[in-house]
Specification:
Layout lengths: L5 E4 L5 E6 L5 H9 L3 H8 L8 H8 L6 E8 L7 E9 L6 E8 L8 H15 L4 E6 L4 H7 L5 E4 L5 E5 L13
Parallel strand pairs: 5-6
Antiparallel strand pairs: 1-2, 2-3, 3-4, 4-5, 6-8, 7-8
The chain binds coenzyme A.
């Protein structure tokens, strides 16, 4: 394990490890996308997505870990890396203290605390890297993401495109419950 890897257990006891994404995660990301339902894809990208564009995957696997941070969650097992979740933030060029985040968990592992674990990882990373605001755009009916965000003190506002913008301050963000260990 690398020094920034985090081991944890989901609610059902499944062992997972959170690791910064590297170029060797490319296939894992593509496999994980294949396991996402149309509903989850729409919730994440706000439009139908049949495939992940190559240049988008390049951005994920080429994250510099400062302006762009991507963490993958794998099952904690020997052998093949099986990716079950991904979270990302990207620092805004025009507002370097602000970063936009997103979180995705493959359907078979949703509601096990993984989305919260991934967001916690991003918050901790943001805190250590001078990000003063994490911002995420969520569709109004996305109860699972709203469920994750409700664990934190967040500001929210409705956007003209129909999404809801959630903002949280990483230095002040404290998860209200211990979800998983
Ligand atoms: C949103 C997402 C990341 C959440 O991940 P997750 O691993 O399911 O999240 P967690 O298990 O940590 O927490 C989800 C919480 O929402 C709650 N929740 C889930 N569905 C819900 C619903 N329909 N109504 C109310 N609450 C709901 C869960 O009960 C849970 O809260 P609890 O632990 O207090 O019971 C995941 O559902 C996902 O990847 N969705 C598709 C992509 C997406 O929408 N990304 C967000 C864009 S930023």
């Amino acid at each position: 394990m690398g020094s920034s890897d985090v081991k944890a257990r989901l609610k059902d006891g499944t062992g997972v490890v959170l690791v910064p994404v590297s170029p060797c995660d490319r296939q894992c990301i593509l496999d994980g996308f294949e396991q996402l339902s149309d509903r989850s894809r729409y919730s994440r990208y706000h439009m139908p997505m049949r495939t992940l564009p190559d240049d988008y995957v390049d951005c994920l696997t080429g994250a510099d870990n400062y302006n762009s941070v991507v963490v993958a969650c794998h099952l904690d097992q020997e052998g093949a890396r099986v990716g079950i979740g991904l979270a990302r933030y990207v620092r805004l060029q025009e507002e370097p203290g602000v970063a936009e985040f997103s979180v995705t968990v493959v359907d078979a592992y949703q509601n096990q605390g993984l989305g919260t674990l991934l967001l916690e990882y991003l918050i901790q990373h943001a805190r250590d890297n001078q990000v003063s605001l994490l911002r995420g755009y969520v569709l109004p009916g996305n109860e699972a993401m709203i469920g994750v965000l409700q664990r934190y003190a967040v500001c929210k506002r409705n956007e003209s495109d129909g999404t809801v913008c959630y903002e949280l301050d990483p230095s002040a963000a404290r998860c209200k419950d211990k979800v998983v260990g």
